[in-house]
Design brief:
- The structure holds 2 protein chains of 2 kinds.
- By secondary structure, chain A is mostly helical.
- Helices cover 76% and strands 0% of the residues of chain A.
- In chain B, 77% of the residues lie in helices and 0% in strands.
- Classes of the chains: A mainly alpha, B mainly alpha.
Chain lengths: 297, 327
């Protein structure tokens, strides 16, 4: 009997049905569905929005500086007369790209570390988990700031710094899944038919560990947005004219607090808030969807 | 459970923290190696023009040609004996520079922690005792909103409303520099300056602690012994406050202790928005000046704080819950 024929069948079929069930459970969580719709709208807006508006984010028009929101400028203008809506959309694209890249990066690290620790076990597991503990103990905002000023602010340094200090949760969850799943019969069966360790770890166990991975990845986006925004808000992130939502808030501090130009602060912050809130609700819905045993409280 | 068992447990837990602290020190040492000028600059204070010969002599003096492992242990020895290098900017010893900023941060953090716990317990217990009521849904929704609100945005908008529009509260600093208050007026003045910073700093912890109190309380309220208490005719108030709350408090104390490092981290943002001269502000100023010795010093303190809080949370958890035995 050829091993390729026998082995992948059972877990894959089971997870496909599981996925359908999970989607049905997710749809019942109204706030999660609403959150998903808000996220989709914002993603679409930052991608195509700037093309539809007659301004670009770097054109300076001193004649129309510091204007409150109006029909011509829905989110007002800044001290150089730049249209705030376009700046918010452009900034959003940058914010979201950083967050998504950082989450993908941290997911790769977390899954690899967690899978190796859980699958191999023993002393290696012990060492890797102590490394996780050490990374957990370092306050991420401080280390991220340090790394970014050491390496220089740019897209990849910021993404890497955020990712380097956010993979630990994924690693712990993946390790826990591997520890339980590797004891199951289908793994033993696969090994009995001569399937290699790497193939078992990736093709047979990983699909079963996907649920918690998806949940942490989703919530990770919120955390990454907040990290990047905090960094930029402190003036240590992207340098002008590039500005993420946090960067726009950094620029807005004085205009809002001493000149009363509320629109400069309200809109970029509102975008962060909406995205983070939606992501949190979607994460909540996903958690219920992948783990139906979890009590809704 | 004997007293000796507790002591043994505490000692064992402390010993377990040692490898963790060593791991942290290794990472900080690696970061130190990455800094421009490396550890030598950190030891020499403000950067100055020096000749290659001087650099070579200094390298020898500071043991920079030694193997990295030797350097690490020398550095660690220095850190343990209080030699944390000196600030690039002012030349002051790092510990002294940080120490001068501790009181403000401590004041801010402690006030925020106490306030967060108080609000969270009141709201959480109230919501849990009326599970699925309108109040409960409102509390849950509000805590979700609180968790999703970036503190820096909240801070700016609060300043706009209370300082710019209503002119009720000061926008920055710790005291009113124009009016030199004394006695009680000075205390009031400082309290006025702390209202907005404490509100901003507490936002996250209030939101997360409320969720914990609520779910912990719901867990406890569903237990058999509470049904017994209710069945024996005790008023609901007594059941919730006398029999429920003390048991629900155990996990909450743990989480409150763990919130301490979070608040400390939040102080970076809060102190920056409100121009308060604390450690968080010092970190941002030092980042602007690329004052690495100070930055690494604050990072080390923050990491140790995380380890100590975890330790404290573990020990308290067992101390408060007699069902936990130390093995």
């Amino acid at each position: 009997m050829s091993s390729a024929l026998v082995t992948p069948a059972v877990p894959v079929v089971r997870s496909a049905r599981g996925r359908f069930e999970a989607w049905r459970r997710f749809r019942r969580h109204r706030m999660a569905v609403l959150g998903l719709a808000v996220l989709a709208t914002i993603a679409l807006a930052v991608l195509v929005g700037p093309l539809l508006i007659g301004y670009d984010s770097e054109t300076i028009a001193l004649a129309s500086k510091n204007q409150p929101p109006s029909l011509a400028h829905l989110m007002g203008t800044d001290e150089l007369g730049r249209d705030q809506l376009v700046r918010v959309l452009d900034g959003g694209r940058l914010t979201l790209s950083v967050a998504v890249s950082a989450v993908v990066f941290s997911l790769v690290v977390g899954v690899v570390v967690g899978a190796v620790a859980g699958y191999v076990g023993g002393a290696l597991d012990n060492v890797l988990m102590r490394v996780v503990d050490v990374f957990y103990s370092l306050p991420s905002l401080f280390v991220v700031i340090l790394l970014v000023i050491l390496v220089g602010a740019g897209f990849w340094p910021i993404v890497t710094a955020i990712a380097l200090f956010s993979w630990m949760n994924t690693a712990r969850l993946v390790r826990a899944s591997y520890l339980t799943l590797k004891q199951r019969e289908f793994v033993e069966a696969a090994r009995g038919t001569g399937v290699g360790h790497l193939r078992i770890a990736v093709r047979h166990i990983l699909p079963g560990a996907l649920g918690p991975i998806i949940v942490t990845a989703t919530l990770g986006i919120a955390a990454a947005i907040l990290s990047e925004s905090a960094l930029s808000f402190l003036g240590l992130g992207f340098q002008p004219p590039q500005a993420t939502w946090g960067g726009l808030l950094y620029e807005a501090q004085r205009p809002v607090v001493s000149l009363g130009h509320w629109w400069r602060g309200l809109f970029p912050g509102l975008m962060i808030f909406l995205v983070v809130l939606s992501v949190n609700y979607v994460g909540d819905g996903l958690r219920d969807a992948v783990d139906p045993k979890r009590r809704r409280s | 459970m004997g007293h000796r068992a507790v002591t043994a447990y505490v000692i064992r837990r402390c010993l377990q923290a040692i490898p963790l602290l060593l791991g942290i020190s290794v990472i900080i040492f690696v970061l130190l190696q990455m800094t421009p000028g490396g550890p030598m600059a950190a030891g020499e204070g403000a950067a100055t023009q020096v000749s290659p010969e001087q650099i070579a002599r200094l390298r020898g003096r500071y043991g920079l040609d030694d193997p990295l492992v030797v350097q690490y242990f020398n550095w660690l020895g220095g850190v343990l004996t209080g030699d944390w290098g000196s600030s690039f900017d002012t030349g002051r010893p790092v510990l002294e520079a940080i120490g001068a900023r501790v009181p403000v941060t401590l004041q801010l953090t402690v006030v925020a922690l106490v306030l967060s716990v108080l609000i969270a317990v009141v709201v959480g217990v109230f919501a849990a005792s009326r599970q699925n009521s309108l109040v409960d849904h409102a509390a849950t929704g509000a805590s979700f909103i609180g968790l999703s609100t970036p503190s820096f945005w909240f801070g700016i908008m609060l300043l706009y409303v209370f300082s710019f529009q209503l002119r009720l509260l000061p926008s920055s600093g710790l005291t009113d520099l124009r009016a030199r208050h004394t006695g009680f007026a000075a205390v009031l003045d400082q309290a006025e300056h702390l209202i907005l910073p404490v509100a901003v700093l507490s936002l996250m912890s209030v939101a997360s602690l409320t969720r914990y109190v609520r779910s912990s309380m719901i867990d406890v309220l569903g237990q058999d012994y509470l049904r017994t208490a209710r069945g024996s005719g005790l008023p609901e108030r007594t059941v919730v406050l006398r029999h429920g709350l003390p048991n629900a408090a155990i996990p909450v104390v743990t989480v409150a202790v763990l919130a301490l490092p979070e608040l400390f981290l939040g102080a970076v943002i809060t102190e920056t928005i409100f121009g308060l001269p604390g450690m968080g502000r010092l970190f941002v100023e030092s980042a602007d000046l690329r004052d690495y010795p100070v930055l690494l010093g604050i990072l080390l303190i923050a990491a140790v704080l995380v380890v100590v809080s975890n330790l404290l949370a573990d020990v308290l958890y067992g101390r408060l819950d007699p069902r936990i035995t130390y093995v």
